[in-house]
Write a sequence for this structure.
């Protein structure tokens, strides 16, 4: 397995669920992702859990994780993000299923949901209304 903290030649590592079958054509989907932010020193272990769950078909079609390469879109260098994609934000049952599965996998972090149509827009650049949903952190 490739380890995000050891990759510095690209911004992202990706994991795909090869068996995933989309229910709708791309143009009919409002795809999005749950964003999981964590400290850089903990991202490798969290990515291993998420990556395995994607391959096992427990989550959505794919996920990506920020690597050690400094990203100008990041709020700070001490935090990394994992994006867990869902097929369609309008499929509320699936969006919440993925959220609950992340919790079942032990993800306690605050989760933020963002639509893919807002890719390239960032709060630290002044863009607003990007967050569609929030799932607050879970206490131990």
């Amino acid at each position: 397995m490739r380890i995000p903290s050891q990759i510095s030649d690209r911004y992202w590592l990706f994991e795909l669920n090869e068996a995933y079958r989309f229910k709708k054509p791309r143009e009919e989907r409002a795809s999005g992702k749950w964003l999981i932010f964590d400290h850089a020193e903990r991202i490798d272990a969290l990515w291993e859990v998420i990556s395995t769950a994607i391959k096992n078909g427990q989550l959505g079609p794919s996920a990506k994780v920020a690597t050690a390469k400094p990203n100008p879109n990041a709020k700070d260098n001490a935090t990394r993000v994992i994006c867990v994609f869902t097929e369609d934000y309008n499929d509320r049952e699936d969006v919440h299923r993925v959220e609950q599965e992340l919790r079942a996998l032990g993800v306690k972090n605050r989760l933020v949901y963002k639509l893919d149509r807002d890719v390239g827009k960032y709060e630290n650049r002044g863009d607003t209304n990007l967050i569609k949903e929030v799932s607050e952190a879970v206490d131990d």
In short: The chain has one domain: 4-135. The CA atoms of residues 65 and 82 lie 4 Å apart.
